[in-house]
Give the backbone structure.
Amino acid sequence: MQYHALALARHGRQVALLGYLQTRPHRDVLRSENIRLVPVAELSGLRVGPKLFQYVLKVLVQSVQLLYTLLRIEQPSYILLQNPPGLPSIAAAWVAGLWWGSKLIIDWHNYGYTIMSLSHGRSHPLVLIAEWYEKLFGRLSDYNLCVTDAMRKDLWVNFKIKAVTLYDKPASYFKETPLDLQHNLFMKLAKDYEPFKARTASPSAARSAFTERDGSSGSVLKSRGRPALLISSTSWTEDEDFSVLLRALEDYERFIKEGARLPALVCVITEFRLCCVGFSGSADLGVCLHKSSSGLDLPMKVVDMFGCCLPVCAIHFECLHELVKHNENGLIFRDSQELAKQLKMLFLDFPSLEGKLHSFRENLRASRQLRWDQSWDQTVLPLLGNKE
């Protein structure tokens, strides 16, 4: 939603950005003169009674809270929201749209009821109510965006909602990290984390486990015999099973014990989409364990990794092929054993420039994929009438 706000602001639109400010907004959002932050207070003190009662109470209170906030801002031409979370925001936005005479735009990233079904089961009454709710209020929108062609087709077949596909694209600041900045990052991490420390100290060079700066010339080089850097990110939800990666790493270690000439692996795991640009732009391989609850959305972490020209191994689900092209920009696996074999194959000649890992990176560099701003201008701006 911050990307949407920045795109609208770039075209001279005045934007009121509503949300729970659990994390600090992006600096570009804070700097924009056209974006006004409208924080929604976090609810607390509602954990009274059975869980079902707590949930219903929370939805009712949030409905009043969101509607009150929406009716206090200046009259908007459009109300744009992301789903999920859509309960109760879709209904609140629709009522506010009726009051203001505003157009309602929903950006579908998944179905909320399929996420609920991961913890409650597909036939749970709450899940069935959530599905009914999304279908009912989703049809009341004026425009709809979605993140895959598979979702666009499903929205029409099952919801009778016409949508336009707006693929998630990396922002312009997702790019490969220059070697000099990589070295600064690794040296900073080496102060606190053992895997980033150089194996041997050198009086003439500042070294990390991955890079070294020559004391006389000042140039930075990749360290000889360096480990490979693997990165992943997670939101620790039911649609990600990190035991798959852990079992694959155990197999990788077994390969080494059996005599395979493989590099040591340093694995960095960050919170969902806080997989910072410096890490993604400095890593050798990304791993994605996201399994879509609906089978219709795409992992944004992979989008950002591709923006940094970082090859990815991703676990299979139905529409993943719309993003990850097997044997072109990465690999798709189905279980830990297949992931372990892929890690062995990719790192067998590490850090040679002849293997598949380098080929995937070169393919990503050559793809010249659209960035968010370009994609947004082509897809969303025409819906708004191209008015600056």
The chain is about 40% helix and 15% strand.
